[in-house]
Design a protein that fits this description.
The chain is mainly α and 371 residues long. It has three domains: 1-95, no CATH class; 96-225; 247-371, no CATH class. The protein is built from 16 helices and three strands. The protein has a three-stranded mixed β-sheet. Strand 2 (47-50) and strand 3 form a beta hairpin. InterPro entries: Prenyl_trans_a.
Length: 371
Amino acid sequence: MAAVDEARKNLQYQAYEELNGFFSNCEDHVVEIAILPPAIEPPDGFLMRDGSNVGISKKILALAFVEARQRFFEGLKFGNDQSCFNSSRVILLFDPEHITAANYRKRKLLMVWKKESGRDDERSHEFERLEKRELVFLDTILTSPLHRQSKSPTLWHHRFWLINLSLPLVHMHTDMASYSRFLKAELEAVFKAGEHHPKNYYAWQYARRLIVRAEELIQDAPEYRKVYHEVRWSWTKDMTTWCRKHPSDISGWSFLLFLLSKVDNVSERTTIIREVMCYAINFELKNESLWVFIRTALASGILQEEQHTLLDLLRRHVKAISATMTEAARSESSPVVALRWIESSGYQELESSRDELWFSSTIPELQKTSG
């Protein structure tokens, strides 16, 4: 029995050392981690590496976690910060809702940030290095094809905490082009997480909070507003493309509606919604999420005087397809159901804020049933 326990401890130690070594070697670039199926055995028995990708079995990951957890709490007890910081990476990879490990990383970063905040010079290299590596670590976990991890509320909250801490400094010490690239990289991380885990509510909620925070900072820099409008329009077009590739993702459509509410130009909003409508009509799509977006956008006030133009387009389409449908088929047709919903809701009296509130409150309910 003692021999078995000793062998298990050795295996835990080796599993942790391999995984921790992998994280240490990849601190400065994002990699992709995947769980290997039971039939695949890595050559060394621990990790299967392929360029910037690595595969690990659930068994080895669990063994590494046991060792990491032991080292983490021993590090807390004896004040070994480096051991705690390293082991917290393995802990969060296995258990993304381990709040103690996430909070420890916050305290470590906050301690460095506070040390630098009282200085008059630019951000120190130490905080900048830690911040970038933390984003790399979060990108690696949140954008990898890991079911629980990519939809972790704890990790997405941790990411926003970090961005909220560093974004004012990024805004202060970079030009608008660099600032927009920074924000676009964050949105691309959300896009990837949304692909790996459809209806990723926490990822899209992070994107909302990011946009709101970025716009708060822009208010204090009027010289950036025109450029930011162009950047925001670019994001909206990218988001439309993403949604068209994932027409059943209700969280993505919800975020697109959120972005449209931020677009100042009515003609630009109309262009996006018309594009989505034509896409749905031409391909005869029946995805409920897509048609919820269309009906909500048409019933809201964001189109202003263009509202009736697009409603007429929908009515003509419904009239054309209804001519060859039975009553039962009409009652289940997505365009017909959408038009009935709009007309029964009294669309002329709806205001944007009211409709957005309805949409945002409806989306989580749909996600609970389908996500």
